[in-house]
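DATA SHEET
Item: assembly model
Revision: 1
Owner: S.N.
Input lines:
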Amino acid sequence: MIDHPAVNRRITLASRPQGVPAPENFALTQAPVPRPGAGQLLVRNTWLGLAPAARLRMSEGGGYAESMKIGDVIYGQSVGVVVESGHPDFKAGDEVATINGGWQDYSVCDAQSVWRADLSRASAAAWLGILGTSGMTAWVGLTRVVRLEAGETLVVSAAAGAVGSVAGQIGKVLGCRVVGIARGAEKCRYVAEELGLDACVDYSASDFPDALARTCPDGVDVYYENVGGAVRAAVWPLMNRDGRVAVCGLISEYHGELNGGPDWMSILTKRLRVEGFILSDFAGLREAFIEEMGEWYSTGRIQAREDRSSGLESAPAAFIRMLTGGNLGKTVVRL
Amino acid sequence: MIDHPAVNRRITLASRPQGVPAPENFALTQAPVPRPGAGQLLVRNTWLGLAPAARLRMSEGGGYAESMKIGDVIYGQSVGVVVESGHPDFKAGDEVATINGGWQDYSVCDAQSVWRADLSRASAAAWLGILGTSGMTAWVGLTRVVRLEAGETLVVSAAAGAVGSVAGQIGKVLGCRVVGIARGAEKCRYVAEELGLDACVDYSASDFPDALARTCPDGVDVYYENVGGAVRAAVWPLMNRDGRVAVCGLISEYHGELNGGPDWMSILTKRLRVEGFILSDFAGLREAFIEEMGEWYSTGRIQAREDRSSGLESAPAAFIRMLTGGNLGKTVVRL
């Protein structure tokens, strides 16, 4: 029996952001370390994985099942070590990844909501990114929601981000022509050269819509949507008949007024399918995902980059940087 | 061997309409009656079925596969009698329904594009409506595109129209709560009382969005979209999580500028699926459709009303009346 730790440091929601979150929306607080009940685990977090979905949950009535309340620990995935186990399948010392360990040193999680994260097989950042919720979101969207097929043209927005960078690479593995969209020359170079996409178009360039059209001379069969707004407006007229859109995120629209969407005449006349999805509806596919993505990762067909910072207190700044496009790959925090 | 008829009267596209079509966009012309080739049938049309899809095809680059050209016979379904057969499965005297016999006295059709229309089993108007393209469009949209399930709330726009009136009744047969949307008290009474929907909301009423919300206290699971514009805008905020939209038509948007669509944040946070479809992609289901709908029709579970006029020359006015909401049920022309 190990000593039960005493103090849990947590980053909690101090106030709801208006627009882009600011440091004062977050509070570093302390609380007693909770005890796990039957079927639960107490996990000491060693890494956090930050995700834009947390921004949606910081607003009231954002539509997701669980909006955070003021005082709640900020939503997010983690990797850590089991300290106390209330479930026979886990024991102290096991390495696990959580869906929502939250931004804190210690989390109590239901055993069925965590999975084993073998850190000899992949790094903690990989378990939070490619093999975690980001990677699985990309994989579910392409293989289950839009059912990407070899030979199709795939466009991925936020192609240098945690989900987009995996989605683009999956498209290549599946035999597609893949065009990324990202902001700035450095990200575009990363996407095209390091990730191996066929091209990456800079949406901050003045001729962006024309450049995208030139880069997709055969139109777009599948659009993996992370962004919304002007990026979507440029992709929309390029959609081919029977095209599909996986609506994974709308990061340009999380901070302000709702934008209207594009015309539906294209949906009608081109028989488009536009579909939103959320990872939690596909939890039963986790093992299939780990098997397939683990194979692609271990054979080097899909690679990872991380935006790493250190210390729980660094999480808010890293989160704000991610939401404003300052990151390449998965944003992780080492505790 | 019967005499080959000499003169074919046809309504052709004289000019492309701007906005709502006007009589001068149509011309009554004559041409020699064509001869059927191998695998083809010459059909003497006895009834025409008018459909809003013809309006889309009257514009250039509307996005559908086949825009009409100036001088083309106007697109539309027909019922008629085989006069000469170039296919062993059909003989002179057989009664058939066509997908696109067009607005003319005689049509040459590929044998595989027509089907038998037993007029002792159902009226010509039924073969053009409930058992024709209108009925099959409603059936495909609900049973194959959005996969309506018993217990769901279905909203149908243009609920008194040819497709909407069938879609609403299918929803009732399948065990759903069904709310129609139509314009004016007469149509709403028809939809609620004669067709047996649970309610019908008048979109010309000043409190339409509020009235619709009150009529759908549990939200909307499936929206069968025929209209677009302000009607869609009232339905959109009522969509439930995992809701689906079958985009069958956008009749309010066929005549002018493209409208923008509604926000995609709802698609994301509610995991909505919005899907356009076209009947021709489901041609292989025709026998399954005739079997199921024929059963519903012959047992009185689904009923038909028609808006009937007489004479080929009456078709343009009937078509304009249909596009401007003057019809109840399927618009047919007796030749």
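QC remark: Residues 7-129+304-334 of chain B form a domain with the Quinone Oxidoreductase; Chain A, domain 1 fold (CATH 3.90.180.10).
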